[in-house]
Write a structure and sequence with these properties.
The protein has one domain: Trna Endonuclease, Chain: A, domain 1 (3-Layer(aba) Sandwich), CATH 3.40.1350. It contains 3 helices and 5 strands, in the order ααβββαββ. The chain has helices at residues 2-26, 32-45, 90-103; strands at residues 50-60, 63-74, 78-83, 107-112, 119-124. A hairpin with a 6-residue loop joins strand 4 (107-112) and strand 5 (119-124). This is GxxExxY protein.
Length: 130
């Protein structure tokens, strides 16, 4: 478990560093897709393995009821949800937590490029099942 926590910590720090580089270069004010493309370039340069717009099934009582695309699935273990809005609200945190629970991922990041300073939150899925 300690090894997993170290890997999560190291990986989320690298992702956040990439996001900071993007925000420093572009500032705020662009659409989310611009930051998504720039972050993909930055993570590639940093050697971080990811899938962009990764489509995952959503289940209810063991039946697939739809799909949802997470902005980034990093190394198969961390979801990264991007926003480009003036202020993160509770609904954005709830959405990001829902993705963690739906995909049974332990750790996620919610990153907002829309503020003057980059805003990011590490999120933990309390319902995670190893």
């Amino acid at each position: 478990m300690i090894n997993d926590q170290y890997k999560y910590s190291e990986l989320t720090s690298k992702i956040i560093g990439c996001a900071m580089t993007v925000h420093k270069a572009l500032g705020n004010g662009f659409q989310e897709v611009i930051y998504q493309r720039a972050l993909a370039i930055e993570m590639n340069l940093s050697g971080i393995a990811f899938n962009r717009e990764f489509e995952m099934p959503i289940f209810y009582r063991e039946e697939q009821i739809g799909t949802r695309r997470v902005d980034f699935l990093v190394e198969g273990i961390i979801s990264v949800e991007l926003k480009a809005i003036t202020l993160l609200e509770d609904v954005h945190f709830a959405q990001a937590i829902n993705y963690l629970e739906a995909y049974n991922l332990e750790i996620g990041l919610l990153i907002n490029f829309g503020e003057k300073s980059l805003n990011f939150k590490r999120l933990t899925n309390k319902k995670f099942k190893p």
